[in-house]
Amino acid sequence: MAQQDGTTGSERIVGLSKSAAVERVVDADESRDPDTVRAVLDHVTEDGIVTADGVDSAVTDTSMILSTAETRVELASIDLDDAGEAAGDDAAVGAVRSRLDVFESKVANAAERVESLGEKLQGLSGWRDDPRSVYDTVLGLREVASESQALTAHADNVQLDIEEFERWLSNHDVRVRGLDGDVTALEQSLDGLADRVAFVADANDADTPEAGGDDRATEWYNAALRARVSDLLVEDVRAELADLRELAPESAAESDGLGDAAADLDELDARVERLRGRLDELVRPSWGDEYGARIESFEATLAAFEPPVSWGAVQAELDDARVGDDE
Question: SS3 for 13?
Fold first, then answer.
């Protein structure tokens, strides 16, 4: 059998001018956009002609881009190992372990992506013996290059996050500032919840006892969900506080900020309870009938979370459970 050179078939384009190659590729599949095809073929065009050397150069260029991603992922893995060693016995503390677990997952995922892209590139590198069209080969190379560049950026971000973690691990003041940020975020969240509770209360006061439109019902329901999320997040920050006390150096005093954070959390906890109590007072029978089971289901979902909690995961559950255009 004659060796395939990737130039046979209805999309034989090596040796054609770029304009003729674009026309042939589009004729073979009218769903292809001519401008996109033209941009893809730019990478394998020399002096206006689509060339085999151009395809080989695209393979080489893509290989270099993927090699950069591989290197960055390896560096992130090395940094992670160093961070684990720096943590030492403290790696058993929840606040430390959870952070290391996140990094380990990200690095492992990145390594899997590198391997997958390498296999894909290997398949495309033998394009002369591949029955697929030159255009599909070049398109695949551009996809590998794009994904590799994104992976390089991701690995760089993971490295930066690990460096930030090491600063957090080695500096008590940095840890306290991070906790203060969590407390502030909780305060702001409760401010928003209080506004929602006030909306429901004002709407009820303005209407007859048995009335209550859909807007008020959904607002009450969404507020009830957020109140339960707030309970969980207060619990999570309390657990973080306990871990930071365990990590605190012997020289740290209660006046170093952790004591203030504990007092703030007590107040936030009480505030959540007041807001939940107010929501219980505002509920109308029809709202309870409509949403009671859904609230119970959401409570069961939240019960599966234990500190340290992924706030993003909790937010995703809230987004799934809420109704309307609640933001």
Answer: coil
Contact between 254 and 185 (Cβ < 8 Å): no
Residue 306 structure tokens: 């234990």
Tell me the C-alpha distance between 76 and 286, whole Å: 55
Structural element, H or E, at residue 77: helix 52-87
- The answer to whether the CB of 236 falls within 8 A of the CB of 226 is no
Please answer whether residues 308 and 212 qualify as being in contact, where contact means their C-beta atoms are separated by less than 8 angstroms: no
Cα 291 to Cα 287: distance, rounded to the nearest angstrom: 6
DSSP H or E stretch at residue 50 = strand 49-50
Distance CA(323)–CA(147), nearest Å, equals 36
Q: Which H or E run includes 293? A: helix 285-303
State the pLDDT at residue 9.
46
Tokens of 222: 């969404």
Please state, in angstroms and rounded to a whole number, the distance separating the CA atoms of residues 275 and 270: 9
Cα–Cα distances (Å) from 272 to 128, 178, 199, 259, in that order, read: 67, 22, 17, 20
Domain boundaries, the chain: 16-169, 172-321
Over residues 120-174, the pLDDT tens digits come to: 999 999 888 777 788 999 999 999 999 999 999 999 999 999 999 999 999 999 9
